[in-house]
Write a structure and sequence with these properties.
about 290 residues, 8-stranded mixed sheet, 12 helices, about 40% helix, globular
Length: about 290
Amino acid sequence: MRIDLHTHSTASDGTDTPAELVRGAAAAGLDVVALTDHDTTRGHAEAVAALPEGLTLVTGAELSCRLDGVSMHLLAYLFDPEEPALLAERELVRDDRVPRAKGMVAKLNALGVPVTWDQVARIAGDGSVGRPHVASALVELGVVPTVSDAFTGQWLADGGRAWVAKHETDPFEAIRLVKGAGGVCVFAHPAAAKRGRTVPESAIAELAAAGLDGIEADHMDHDPDTRARLRGLAKELGLLVTGSSDYHGSRKTVSLGEFTTDPDVYGEITRRATGAFPVPGAGGSRTDAGAGAA
């Protein structure tokens, strides 16, 4: 089995619609794909409705968190999307995204960059607006050559000249909320140092003691030595180890299935989850799409 447990669609900051994403996952030879848009489950119903036969969808979300001033992301899988406490927290994070993006536009304008809010909103479309959309605007204007080049101290990286803070959940609270909604938590790209500061391994140990299920070791932002170190840490802490593409469509160079998760780990994730279940593909002909979003 080929299993990719971290992808994004136009429901947040990817460039493929949820339907395009699941069709692309099937074409890439995946057996299982997780849709984990930032702080939203809005793309799940469309993905379920278009799910090709032979592909299984894992519903999830990537939750924005902050620990001791360091931004971090938690991948939450197979939780009940209507559980009130987790839903309220996701909405709080999402509601802060627009004023944050407008603040970044204002800072860029003060730096002499002629980006506009209308431009960023057009790029975001119906998605949850975020830094990648602002970064894409900078690419359009020729300020930087790629989206990744916008995530530096000169521009949009944490603490950068045009960075603006947003509401982010305490990860210990996020774990509690996800568990309360029947889900499973995996720390996304925990050692992606080129994105900015990372949490220390001592903090990962504390998160593990609080109920963290796993860490994403096999990721494009981890070199081989880092992946090996994270696997050792996971073994020491009794954590699951996942691998995934963190696919964003054309916004990043990574391909669907570039990194994958071991089938036994996937099986353990589904065993632990009680809030929702993986959705098997039915040739894109399902009419009960709303049920799949759970």
